[in-house]
Amino acid sequence: MEYAVAVLVGYLLGSVPVALLVGRRHGVDLRTVGDGNPGAWNAMEQLGPRAAAPVFAGDALKGLAAGLAGLALGDVWVGYAAVGAAMVGHAFPVFASFQGGKSIMTFAGGVFALSPLAAGVALAVCVAVSLATAFRYGARVGVFGFPLVQLLFDPAIQVAGTGALMCIIGLRFLSAPRRDRSAPATRAPAGRPPG
After folding, report:
1. Is residue 71 pLDDT above 50, yes or no?
2. For residue 155, with 0-12 CB atoms within 10 Å meaning exposed, 13-18 middle and 19 or more buried, which class applies?
């Protein structure tokens, strides 16, 4: 029962379309500009870092809240189930016509619940690499290097669970439609919810 509740809570949290809501506030439908991905990175490219900051925070908080809810309901595996469901919810949100992002920031927030020490180290590495490379590679190193850091803190079976979560990201990259990143901005229709 705890798994079912955790998955439901995680999916509903993940389905909150933060990027679309923020984009709409700025008059832009992120599904029609840039790479068409309604997520934090496209928001930053289209809206700028300051306007996109709530998207980064909101998407990460969805994963963190899901993970904490899962841990409150059961053990670490219930937490993994909740984070995985939040990532699926972000990718296929019920509140936005099942057209979501790639779940990277939701994953990043979730691992702070599942393995906070490893997540803290990965974040420090992310910041250091970002500063050294003019913010080009830090996020990639932080996210995709996380399982290696996690090996220092958690059992290998838990790191394998992290790998399963990362497969959701990989599948989203493979399934996401390719768009011309230079597509002109399209203003969102007024008075309609995203999706």
Report:
1. yes
2. exposed
Say how far apart CA 141 and CA 150 lie, in whole Å.
13
Print the domain residue range for 73: 2-115
Looking at the structure of the chain, the number of domains it has is 1
Compute φ and ψ for 177, nearest 5 degrees: -65, 145
CB-neighbour burial class of residue 10 (10 A; exposed 0-12, middle 13-18, buried 19+)? buried
- How far apart CA 97 and CA 2 sit, in angstroms, is 27
What pLDDT shows up at residue 157? Answer: 96
Burial of 134 per CB tally in 10 Å (0-12, 13-18, 19+):
exposed
Give the predicted TM-score (pTM) of the model: 0.85
Question: With bands split at pLDDT 50, 70 and 90, how would you rate the model's confidence at 162?
Answer: very high
Separation CA 84–CA 164 (nearest Å): 9
Q: Is residue 42 in a domain?
A: yes
Contact assessment for residue 88 and residue 168, using Cβ atoms and an 8 Å cutoff: yes
Give a yes or no: residue 136 inside a domain: no
Decide if 109 is inside a domain: yes
Structure tokens at 130: 């970002």
Within a domain: residue 94? yes
The tens digit of pLDDT for each residue in 112-141 reads 999 999 999 999 998 998 888 876 787 888
Helix (H, G, I), strand (E, B) or coil at 98: coil
Proportion of the chain in helix, strand, coil states, percent, rounded to 5: 70, 0, 30
